[in-house]
Amino acid sequence: MSWETLKKECMDCRRCPLWETRTNVVFGVGNEQAKVMFVGEGPGENEDLQGEPFVGRAGKLLDDMLKIIGLDRHENIYIANIVKCRPPKNRDPLGTEQDACIGWLERQIELVDPRLIVCLGRIAAMRLIKPDFRITKEHGQWFDLGNRKIMALYHPAALLRDPSKRPETFVDLKALQREIENCK
Ligand code: URA
Questions:
Q1: Does domain 3-182 have CATH number 3.40.50.460?
Q2: Protein residues whose CB sits closer than 6 Å to any atom of ligand 1
Q3: What parts of the chain have a pLDDT lower than 70?
């Protein structure tokens, strides 16, 4: 399936009840040939209104974190979410919603074909790395996902709530930067 067909079908998606309360489907943003792909959990209020991932306060922090290691959503990475429509009141996406939506992300991963995937937060890591992923213990560690490598960072919203986690995230970002250099 081409990008064009994928986007068009995803925009019309009614595979789970979240379509009824969405303003926009939040498909993804960035370089469709990026070597690094970031995956969050799902759109919040600002993302739902603007149709782009990570555009609220957490998104601003994400952009600042990316800049430290030379990454930019409009240049060298692609960003998407596990679910493409906002769960009401920003609750965690249900397993059934994730199951209904994950096919879109799987196709995006195939099309981007990144070397590295970075999960933003626990929900994405539990879905893409392993169901018992422990973010406090396993953030910053690399895992194999077929022929790709995958790791998780703390979610930027968690870093806003608890700034004491930021130094660990800086270390993880440096590990990511090294891995990107290794891929060149
Ligand atoms: N949090 C996420 O996980 N994804 C977004 O797009 C925005 C906030």
A1: no
A2: 26, 40-44, 47, 53-54, 58, 81, 120
A3: none
